[in-house]
Design goal:
Elements lengths: L1 E9 L4 H11 L3 E10 L4 E9 L7 H14 L3 E6 L4 E7 L4 H11 L5 E8 L5 H6 L4 E3 L7 H14 L4 E4 L8 H6 L4 E6 L10 H8 L3 E8 L9 E8 L6 H24 L3 E4 L2 E4 L2
Helix pairs in contact: 3-8, 7-8
Length: about 280
């Protein structure tokens, strides 16, 4: 069995030795290891992939035996099964480029996720989702019904056993309680013009300003709108000959790629939170 250990703790001598000694005593063979010492915060981060002998303990058993090491070093740690598909729910509104891209990558075995359901406040993509054999749930939402709608969304998310929620251009602001309920397991994507071009038609605003770079940012969802820990960003060059429609198409392509990378890294347990930042072991 192949497992992944991710951990963070206050930096001090002997952390790597403690982890590797424990794994050696468990009969594990380390096949991949990465670490990072953050001088600014004084924290240590580590991701280790290892093989256990056939018939060895699963992540629950080995996690229990790891408890003395975790306690002694004040660690936050997690053991995960390598290559296990993460149960995932996608949320979308009326822009379907990221949804379509994630569905295709999932169907093509390019993402280690298991899409359990798609939730939308519209019906535009019901047939697309249905063509993949995935349950589609429409949950209309207005200012007056937001509380009930979010309660229904959380009910669907929990019923699906989702360990990851992806806002694939879901154009509704999540309430503080919703953000707290999804803390650390919800990823959002937006264009990287923020805060320059907020509101509607950002690519038209960018065209009017003659921008030369457009991009996208994937981040974890927090109660601070579009200010959660950043996972991935990318840009594409623009020029004077591009009209707003061309800029929009170019921006959507970047959004798809950036979001797919973020989802992949999360599902592979490569991301560790470091306050308002992330540590990503690629």
């Amino acid at each position: 069995m192949s497992l992944i250990l991710t951990l963070s703790c206050p930096d001090r001598p002997g952390i790597v030795q403690a982890v590797t000694t424990f794994l050696l005593e468990e009969g594990a063979n380390i096949v991949e290891a990465a670490q990072f010492n953050d001088i600014d915060t004084g924290l240590f981060f580590m991701r280790t992939r290892f093989e256990l002998l056939e018939g060895g303990a699963g992540p629950e058993g080995i996690s229990e035996r790891f408890e003395p090491v975790r306690h002694r070093l004040s660690m936050q740690s997690r053991f995960s099964v390598c290559d296990a598909r993460i149960p995932t729910v996608l949320m979308v509104s009326q822009a379907g480029h990221c949804l379509n891209d994630l569905l295709f990558r999932w169907k093509s075995d390019l993402l280690p996720i298991d899409i359990k359901a798609v939730i939308s406040n519209h019906t535009a993509f019901e047939s697309l989702v249905g063509s993949y054999g995935i349950p589609f749930h429409r949950v209309p939402i207005t200012a007056a019904t937001r509380s009930d709608a979010e309660a229904r969304q959380l009910e669907l998310i929990e019923a699906a056993g989702a360990e990851l929620v992806v806002l694939a251009r879901y154009m509704q602001i999540l309430s503080d309680p919703m953000c707290r309920a999804l803390s650390g397991r919800a990823i959002n994507i937006h264009h990287s013009f923020l805060p320059s071009f907020k509101g509607a038609r950002p690519y038209y605003q960018a065209h009017d300003r003659g921008v030369k770079l457009i991009g996208a940012t994937a981040h974890y969802v927090t109660a601070d709108l579009d200010e959660g820990p950043i996972i991935e960003q990318d840009v594409a060059r623009a020029d004077h000959a591009m009209d707003p429609a061309t800029l929009t198409a170019l921006g959507r392509d970047v959004e798809c790629v950036v979001l797919a990378r973020a989802v992949k890294w999360h599902a592979e347990h490569r991301i560790l939170l470091n306050g308002q930042r992330t540590v990503i072991f690629r």
